[in-house]
Specification:
WbqC, two-stranded antiparallel sheet, 4-stranded parallel β-sheet, alpha/beta, 207 residues, WbqC-like protein
């Protein structure tokens, strides 16, 4: 059985899914310490004139605490901003009307835990991709099984080309003449629909 340990991201990039595409289990570690400048609270979408980063505001100064203790700051109207951005970016995409209803209710919840919010979104993404992978939360001291550990490798601060997980496979996007690689999984799902899983398989770098 192939198991991959990876950080939990907010509506992850295509690189994230390329890295786990043939895993039977994806191991997530809620007690790992929060790292600044990570994909835990940010994702990228394609608007008409630019790539936009959507960031979820986090409470407090965020000392080195476990990931599952990071709390979302609801004093800012980020949910409306993110939903409006997603609708503006993909409202005319071929599969928007089919897939957006899966995501919208999750944004309308007041889930305080960023970990639980991201986990719910990732579960929906895997369902729409029709991938039978199991998500397993691993507590401290439970990681005696063998797995490929790529935690800490997929970060915003380094280009994906420096890593060996994702080989861009262009697909029709709504905006721009040039293909924009490695956006949020939303871009692929809304543009390709049921073909998204095949595209990701082709994007995964073979060892």
């Amino acid at each position: 059985m192939k198991r991959v340990a990876i950080d939990l991201h907010y509506l992850p990039t295509l690189e994230f899914f390329s890295a786990i595409y043939d895993a039977e289990e994806v191991l997530l570690f809620p007690k790992d310490l929060y790292q600044r400048q990570s994909f835990l609270n940010r994702t990228k979408i394609l608007l008409a004139n630019k790539v936009e980063t959507l960031s979820i505001p986090i409470k407090g100064r965020r000392p080195r605490i476990p990931m599952d203790q990071v709390k979302i700051d609801f004093s800012q109207k980020w949910q409306a901003i993110h939903l409006r951005g997603i609708q503006s970016a993909y409202g005319k995409a071929p599969f928007f009307e089919y897939f957006f209803p899966y995501f919208e209710p999750i944004f309308q919840e007041q889930e305080e835990s960023l970990w639980k919010f991201n986990l719910e979104l990732l579960t929906i993404c895997l369902k729409l991709l029709r991938w039978p992978v199991r998500l397993v939360s691993v507590e401290k001291g439970e990681d005696s099984i063998e797995y490929l550990d790529i935690r800490g490798q997929i970060t915003p601060g380094r280009p994906f080309l420096e890593r060996n997980f994702y080989r861009p496979q262009p697909y029709p996007q709504l905006f721009g003449l040039d293909f924009e690689p490695n956006l949020s999984i939303l871009d692929l799902l809304f543009c390709l629909g049921p073909e998204a899983g095949t595209s990701l398989k082709n994007s995964a770098k073979k060892e």
